Amino acid sequence: MNSGQPELAAYIGLDWADEEHAVCLRVAKTNEIREFTIKQDSKKLHDWINNLRQEFGGQNIGIAIEKSRGGLVYALMEYDFIILYPINPKALAKYRESCCVSGAKDDPSDAALLMDLIHRHRDRYTPWHPDTVETRTIQLLCEHRRTLVDEQTSLTNRLEALLKGYFPQAIDWAGDLKTVQACDFLAKWPSLSSVQKAKPTQLREFYIDHSCRRSELIEKRVRDICDAKPLTKDNAIIQSSILMVRATVDAIRTILGAIKLFNQEIEDVFPKHPDSELFQSFPGAGEVMAPRLLAAMGSDRSRFDKAAEIQQFSGIAPVTKKSGKMHYVHRRYACPRFVRQSFHEWARLSIHYCEWAQSYYEYQRAKGKRHHAAIRSLAFKWIRIVFRCWKGRTPYDEDVYMDSLRRTKPDWAVQSGLLKKVA
Q: Does residue 247 belong to any structural domain of this protein?
């Protein structure tokens, strides 16, 4: 067994559910197994945990559970004698298949399998330790903000599809559909007939009030509005679409306000974090990506021992499958989506702020890789650098990395011509 693992007085598998949780407990000394359920009630849950403390004299108890977020985990992490082992649902599913070929499944059996995983194979799993309050605050703020951005994208896609069906000109006249300007335009003029009733002076004032200072663009839009012809005159389509557009615009406006609040909160919290300067030092991180990189890495330096662990955990590292003459490489799907997005999106932004990153991306493209594959390759390289800076608590220094490239002369830096540019 891994010497880093704590001694446990009991092993527990907990299969959570909305109404009640299935529990399988094995006592370490006697190997006695107990199976029971606990109602989804905070008082009963805390009473059960306190009974465990009394029964086992405050000794460590391991609990395997399928997730590392949610009310149940938040309750369990308050107790210092509880050692949590989050199990990937895919790992549990594969273990279930190996133990039950028929594919039969229920909550008590899953709880028993979770218990068995940490009882027999605990050396394969790392105990989960909650990060600091400051770090978890930034993590949750960034993840919730990203959820809102995804919802905003979904709503704007719906809005664009609606407009294409009866009022396609608005996609150009309203501007970016993710902005307040577009919401105001469509709330004021949800159809071609309504905007054509507006006076040219009203249209000019609208664009100027929304910080559009390009007089040529304003005059072009005014002329286009006067000359436009309707895509359809079917009143059934127009009236129903107008109602849906207004409802969608209201939803987008609400989400825009919520994103603004999250941005303000992150701007207030992030600079106070002890690692904020470190993550702000990376090219292209900025006020959005720097907090997200911190959220992805956390502040627990014992969580990762080497960069490869982050590359695999984040989903940036590819998966290789070999069997005989077959050799297949594909991108990793079983990973935290937010973490993968954070590294991928930041790597894409870094191209515009870092000369070697741009050269490396162009080198990968010249080899025949598609855009996103080249970005993943760049992110893979960036993670090594982030890990070294994070582990050593040292901000990124471009000059230091460029000096290392001049010394080692990697093939990509030579072939891309980067070393000649910076010689």
A: yes
Q: Are residues 255 and 293 in the same domain?
A: no
CA angle, 10 then 26 then 110, to 5°: 115
Q: Are residues 258 and 141 in the same domain?
A: yes
The whole domain housing 305 covers 276-421
State the alpha helices, DSSP H only, in 125-283: 133-166, 170-173, 180-188, 192-196, 200-209, 215-227, 235-269, 276-280
Two tokens, residue 36? 């029971």
Same domain membership, residue 248 and residue 156: yes
1 within a domain of the structure (yes/no): no
Q: Degrees (nearest 5) of the Cα angle 372, 310, 94?
A: 90
pLDDT at 332: 67
What confidence category does residue 422 fall into, taking pLDDT thresholds of 50, 70 and 90?
low
**In terms of domains, do 21 and 102 share one?**
yes
Q: Which of 78, 98, 130 is the last residue of a domain?
A: 130
Q: What are phi and psi of 329, to 5 degrees?
A: -120, 130
Two structure tokens written together for 44: 């009963």
Q: Same domain, yes or no, for 126 and 140?
A: no
Which of helix, strand or coil describes residue 393? coil
Q: Does residue 4 belong to any structural domain of this protein?
A: no
For residues 199 and 332, state if they share a domain. Answer: no
Q: Which tokens belong to 416?
A: 């891309």
Tell whether pTM > 0.85.
no
Q: In whole angstroms, what is the distance from residue 116 CA to residue 206 CA?
A: 66
Q: Is the domain of 313 the same as that of 217?
A: no
User: What is the signed CA dihedral for 241, 246, 248, 252, rounded to 10 degrees?
Assistant: 150
pLDDT at 127: 85
Its sign, for the CA torsion 375, 256, 133, 77, is negative
Give the pLDDT of residue 310.
92
Q: Dihedrals φ, ψ of 233, to 5°?
A: -110, 10
The model's pLDDT over 16-62, given as tens digits with 9 standing for 90+, comes to 887 888 999 999 999 999 999 998 888 888 999 999 999 999 999 99
* 385/418 Cα distance (integer angstroms): 18
Q: Distance between CA atoms of 75 and 54, rounded to whole angstroms?
A: 18
Tokens of 3: 């010497």
CATH number at residue 51: 3.30.420
Q: What are the DSSP calls for 119-150, one per residue?
A: HHSGGGSPPB----HHHHHHHHHHHHHHHHHH
Confidence at 142, pLDDT banded by 50, 70, 90:
very high
Q: Name the nearest CA neighbour of 23 among 2, 44, 54, 1.
A: 44
